[in-house]
Amino acid sequence: MKFTRIITLFITLLAFVLSRCDLQGSVLPQVELELVADGFTSPVLLVEPEDGSPRLFVVDQVGIIWIVSAGKRIEKPFLDLRPHIVELNAFYDERGLLGLALHPDFATNGHFYVSYSGTPQAGLSPTEWDHTTYISEFTVSANDHNQANPDSERVLLAMDKPGYNYEAGHIAFGPDGYLYIATGDSVRDPATEVGKFAQDTSSLLGKILRIDVNGTADTGQNYLIPADNPFASGEGRPEIFAYGFRNPYRFSFDVSDSGKTRLFVADVGQTLMEEVNLIEPGGNYGWSIREGTACFNPQNWNQPLEICPTSGLSEPIIAYTHQDDLSAIIGGMVYRGNDLPDLTGNYVFGDWGRGNGCLFVAYPPAWGRGLWKTAEIQAKIPGNQAGIGQLLGIGQDENGEIYLLTKAPGTGPIGNSGAVYKILPSSE
Q1: What is the pLDDT of residues 283-324, one digit of tens each?
Q2: Are 18 and 321 spatial neighbours (Cβ–Cβ below 8 Å)?
Q3: Whole-angstrom Cα distance, residue 267 to residue 273?
Q4: Strands of 358-363's sheet, edge to edge?
Q5: What does pTM read for this prediction?
Q6: 98 and 181 in contact (C-beta within 8 Å)?
């Protein structure tokens, strides 16, 4: 038992000894942040359409999709879903408009998809549950490509959520053309129900889902199930691609020069650790058996168990402990742009930092196995700001360049302190 305790402690230490922002490794040369647009409330996502137009779509948690063009935010929203969003708590909330994915043929068909926290389904949702997450299709207006048709909503998937937390909400199309959906292990009472859904393959919560939006099933559902989904033939919900997640807030795909596709999922931890996983179809990523590399203790979240059944669980590639301000991972992507050659081929991510965000880059291990080495990226911020503030999201344009989505510390989904910055090489 003593030997087991030593091994557990050693693994935890390997999962990074932290200062406030410093994980491990050398600090990279400084980068600079250039303000792209501001005046948002809580910007959580940025995407750029591959249609030749110099436009950035910015998702604001309160329920609005904005377009930034030629360095300015277009005055009228692309889509305003505020009437559909549940009432958000002003001090803090994980619900709202959280996902936007443009159809691979967006330039020709104008279809796009959103994920939002809406009011429960009348007569269908459990009365004591909190809200329903909707995955819906909309279409761009036939008369103005900077406006969506608000009456074009077609609900693909509606998932009832018992709690207001662990919402996840990110959606994106993979290189395979299918829509991937991140769902959190939302529970009504975390004190007694923590980890209730993530290991249950009959539930869509705590999962990465994968669906085909280009068809309608014989049953009438507005999507199809890819034939090679892990549970397409039974033993679980056919939409499930991977499971065992707590709050997979952001994920991203990377296609290497050799054509290999990798799916990175950042999973926000409970009390002790944050993690990033490389996803395999049907993989089990541990929650709530493990939190990062530690054995989760549902009776005492601050005291990990000495041992837990780990057979069949996939190992994270990044795992670090909560120390000082580090508290909630903000998933990013492998950098494939041209402006920052030192980052090329490496995974850029951040941490919410209890409202004082941090930015990192992770390098794959030399021998291909084990935890990735991680270093802090020092970001020079324009103006007199002391720090990034609340880091809410990391976006990427069609050239592979990276953007940060932030807002002022200490505020929930209110006000207009939200901003979008582009990461540039340092001029020093």
Answers
A1: 999 999 999 999 999 999 999 999 999 999 999 999 999 988
A2: yes
A3: 10
A4: 329-334, 347-351, 358-363, 373-376
A5: 0.94
A6: no
